[in-house]
Amino acid sequence: MLWIILFVFSAIFALIYYWSQRKYDYWKKQKVPYLKPTPILGNYGDFILQKRHMLYVMEDFCNRLPNEPYFGVFYGTGPALIVRDLELLKLITTKDFYYFNGREASEYVHKEEFTKNLFNNSGDYWRVMRQNLTPMFTSAKMKNMFPLITKCAYEFEKLLDSESKKDDIEAREQVGRFTMACVVSCAFGVDSATMEENTDENNPFVKVKDAFFSGSKWVSFKGTFKSVWPSIFYGLGLKSVPAGVNEIMKNFMLSVFEGRQYKSTTRNDFVDFILKFREKSEIVGDSITNLKTGENKKVHLEITDDLLTSQCILIFAAGFETSATTANYTLYELAKHPEIQKKVQEEIDGYLQKTGNQLNYDVVTELPYTYACIEETMRFYPVLPMLSREVIEDYTLPNGVFLEKGTRIHIPVRKIQRDPKNFPEPEVFRPERFLGEERQKIPPYSYLPFGEGPRICIGIRFAKMQMLAGLVTLLKKFNVELKDKSRTSVEYEPQSIIPTPRYPLKLKVTPRDGWETRTFVQT
C-alpha cells in the first residue's frame, strides 16, 4: 500500500515538474533577460516557503541584474516582469493604464466576499466603484471629519499618559489603537473602544484586525498560496478571509444601518455613502474601455450586501494598519535622529502656539517639515514594497516585447526609492529632500508609497490627516528614544503582509520640559 501512495505522489510531482518546466521558457522566447527559475516555485521560493520577506527576494533579483531596466522572473509557474525603468512605469501605471488596470489574478476576485473590494478589483467593476467612492475622500470631506480625529487625539493623549509610565512602549501597538479609533469613528460613526486600558479581545474590530495582520504562518501561507496559484487555492475550496470575519462586518454594518433607520444623514461619513448606494440599488460610472476607445460608455453596477461589506472591510483594514505602521517607523527614525526630532517638535510647538493649543484641520498644511519626515519614512519603509499589476489584454511594449494577457508586472518600490540615481545618499534619512526646490528634483515615478496613476491610493488625504494628528499628540508632550540603542536597522518578519519588524521597535517615552503649556484646548 505504501509503495502505491509513493508512486501516486511521485507521478503527480513529475507531472507538475514537467508542466512547470514547459512554462519556464517564456522569457527566453521573448528574448527578455531573466533569472533562471527552480521547478514549481520559480524564483520566489524563499518567499513562498516563508523564509524571507518579499522585499528582500525582489531586491536580490535587482542586485543580480543591476543594469537591466526590466527583466523576467517566474512567480511560481507564472511569468512576471520586474520593471524599474521610470519611463516604463509611467507607461504601465498611467499612459497605457487600460492594459494594466488589474492587480493580480483578476479573474478570481469574485470567488469570495472580501476580494470584491476596490483594492483587488479591476475593469469596469473597479472604475465604477472608484468613481463613486472618490467623493468621500475630498479635502472638504476630510475637513468635515477632522473634529472626529481631534476627539480621538484627546483619547490618545490619555492612553499615552498611561503607557509612558512603563519602561518602554511598542509604538506600533499604541499608534495602531489610535488609527483604528480614527477609522472606525470617521468611516462608521461609532466608538471602537480600542483606546481603553483593557481592550476586550472580543471587540469586533480587534477580531478583524487579527484576521488580517496577526502575522500567523497560516494566514500568511493562505495569502501567498492564493496569490501564486489562485486556481488551485479556490479549487480546494479555501478562502483568504475566514467566513466569520465577513459575518462580523456584515452584522456590524447592519446594526449601524438600523441605528440610522437605513437613511443617510448629514454626517457625510462612509456609512452615509453606503446608505445612499443602498437607496439607489445600483451605481453608474464610466466603462474602463472608454480609456481605449474614447467612447462614453456607461456601466451600471448592482449594489449588494456582499459588495458593501467588502468595501467596509477594506476601508477598515487599509485605513488603520498602513498609517500605524508608517507612524511607528517615523517615531523610530526620530528616536535615531534626535536633532531631527527636535526640529519636528519646534514646528509642532510653533503650530500649537499659533492655534492656542487647538488641533485643527490646518495641521495638514502647517507642518511641512513634520510631514516631510513622514514622506521620508515612506521612502525608507513603504508599506507596499512591491506594486503588482496584471496585463488584462495582450500588449506590446515600445521596444517590441510582447506581454500576453495574464502576465504579472512586479514593481520593486523600495528598491526604486533607494536607488541613488533617484535619491542621492539613499541610505541617509533626510526629510529635506521633500521640501522646496529639492522636492522638484525627485524624478517622476520614483516615489511610489501610495502607488501612481489612476490606481493611486484613494485614502491619501485621510492617511496624512490621521498620521499628523497622532504625531502631534505624542511629540508635543514626549521625547522618544531607542530602548536598545544598538538596534539601528530593521529586519522584517517573513510572514508579514505589511513589512513588520521581526523584533519590536521598543521606545522610551519621557515627558518634555514645559509640556503643561501645550495641553490641548478641547472645543
TrEMBL record:
EC code(s) of this entry: 1.14.14.1
Pfam families from the UniProt entry: p450 (PF00067)
Membrane topology, record value: Peripheral membrane protein
Gene Ontology cellular component list: endoplasmic reticulum membrane
Binding-site list for heme: C457
Keyword annotations from UniProtKB, A to Z: Endoplasmic reticulum, Heme, Iron, Membrane, Metal-binding, Microsome, Monooxygenase, Oxidoreductase
CDD domains in the cross-refs: CYP6-like
PROSITE patterns (UniProt xref): CYTOCHROME_P450
Reactions catalysed according to its record: an organic molecule + reduced [NADPH--hemoprotein reductase] + O2 = an alcohol + oxidized [NADPH--hemoprotein reductase] + H2O + H(+)
Annotated localization: Endoplasmic reticulum membrane; Microsome membrane
InterPro entries to which the protein is assigned, alphabetical: Cyt_P450, Cyt_P450_CS, Cyt_P450_E_grp-I, Cyt_P450_sf, Insect_CytP450_Detox
Major location (coarse): endoplasmic reticulum
Family: Belongs to the cytochrome P450 family.
Protein name according to UniProt: unspecific monooxygenase
Source species of the chain: Cnaphalocrocis medinalis
Biological classification of the source: Eukaryota, Metazoa, Ecdysozoa, Arthropoda, Hexapoda
